[in-house]
Amino acid sequence: MVSKLKRILLVEDDPRDVELTLEALGDYNLANEVVVAGDGEEALDYLYCRGNFQDRPNANPAVVLLDLKLPKVSGMEVLRHIRSDEKLKMTPVVILTSSREERDWIESYQLGINAYVVKPVDFHDFVEAVKELGVFWAVINEPPPGSVDRVGKR
């Protein structure tokens, strides 16, 4: 299974949600392939190989798990950048947010997200939702050829 794992970009500013997400992904040995960005600016730096990420492999992550309510650059703005960039626009984006605002939901889909998941308040529900997302996007889903970095196959 290790050779099929692909990187996940988790964009989340709440340390508790980061910890829960990594714990859930760790149950399937996916946590070691997660890059965490604590705000929208850091996510864009990762995606565009800037700043602390200038030496990372050029391939896109298998999926971006994106919170909407972020400091510096909002999740919606990160999504706009992804969908307007020729090299990034095919990257799957899953909104993982506490926002139940209809306008966020509609705008996210209009911008081309792959899924919109409202973070469950219940710990077990949250862990199960993240496990399913991680397994699907990092193991099962087959992205377009050459679009992601498969660990160990650079």
How would you characterize the overall build of this protein?
With 154 residues, the protein is an alpha/beta fold. The chain is 37% helix and 14% strand. The chain has helices at residues 15-26, 40-47, 75-84, 102-110, 123-140, and strands spanning 8-11, 34-37, 63-66, 93-97, 115-118. It has a five-stranded parallel β-sheet, with helices on both faces. Helix 3 (75-84) links the parallel strand 3 and strand 4 (93-97).
CATH level 4 superfamily = Response regulator
Query: How many strands in all?
Result: 5
Number of domains: 1
Specify the biggest β-sheet: 5 strands, parallel
CA radius of gyration is 14 Å
Order of helices and strands, N to C?
EHEHEHEHEH
Strand order of the largest sheet: 2-1-3-4-5
Which structural class is indicated by helix and strand composition? Answer: alpha/beta
Structure annotation, total helices? 5
Q: Give the % helix.
A: 25-40%
- The CATH architecture: 3-Layer(aba) Sandwich
Q: Which spans of ≥5 residues are poorly predicted at pLDDT below 50?
A: 150-154
Strand content: 5-15%
| CATH first level | Alpha Beta
**CATH fold title:** Rossmann fold
